[in-house]
Amino acid sequence: MSKNVKSIKELADELGTNKTRISRIINKNSIPTQKIKNKIVLEDNSVSLIRQYFKNETQQQNETQQQDETQQQNETQQQNETQQQDETQQQNETQQQDETQQQDETQQQNETQQQNETQQQDETQQQNETQQQNETVSILRTELDKAHSHIEKLSNLLDQQQRLALQDKKLLEEYKSEINDLKALKMPTQDTKVEQVSSKQPQEVESVAEEPKKAPRKWWKLW
């Protein structure tokens, strides 16, 4: 084969590609070829065109690949940013939920503490009322005991007074009985006096007749 021509395989090996790609560049760009001994060969001009097209295509592919990679990087970065934003938003929501939960717990603790303080105040007030009632009951019991003692003393005095009254009444009745007895002794009846006068001597009769003229003795001087 002439040194000024190259086969498709040789050019493909030189450019580091395959025959299919070289054939596609030739057909796409209508690059002239030659056929020697039933074998397609390329002259130097055709080889230069194919090299240029291959270089451009390779460069375009590289640019496209680079753009794809850049776009993919941008998409990846955007996804990362979106994911980061989502994570940040989720963290904020979680933090807000935690703060809300903490506020609720604090409010619940305050309410519980307020309820406990109110209950403690009620218990203290109830204890004070109970203590005051107990003190009042104790005072009333003391006063009642004093009243009972006073009533008992009055009852004893009344019993003593009644006993004294009974004794006085009994003594008075005894005095009256004795007085009546003395009156019976000192003032006999008229018949008795007549009998006594008739039975006595004349001198005694005179003394008896003179006896009523004497002043009567007072009975209370007998005591």
Q: Keyphrases for this structure?
A:
223 residues; three-stranded antiparallel β-sheet; PIL3_2; plasmid
Notes on the structure:
The chain has 223 residues and is mostly helical. It has a domain at 6-64. It contains five helices and three strands. It has helices at residues 8-15, 19-29, 44-186, 190-199, 202-210; strands spanning 6-7, 34-36, 39-42. Strands 1-3-2 form a three-stranded antiparallel β-sheet. α1 crosses α2. The radius of gyration is 78 Å and the shape is rod-shaped. The model is unreliable at 219-223 (pLDDT under 50).
- Globally, the shape reads rod-shaped
* Total strands: 3
Rg estimate, integer Å: 78 Å
The level of helicity is over 70%
Would you tell me the structural class of the helices and strands?
mainly alpha
Beta fraction of the residues? under 5%
Low-confidence stretches: 219-223
How many helices? The count is 5
Mean pLDDT: 80
- Give the end-to-end Cα distance, rounded to a whole number of Å: 198 Å
H and E string? EHHEEHHH
Biased composition (Polar residues): 189-204
Region (Disordered): 58-136, 188-217
Keywords: Plasmid
Protein name: PIL3_2
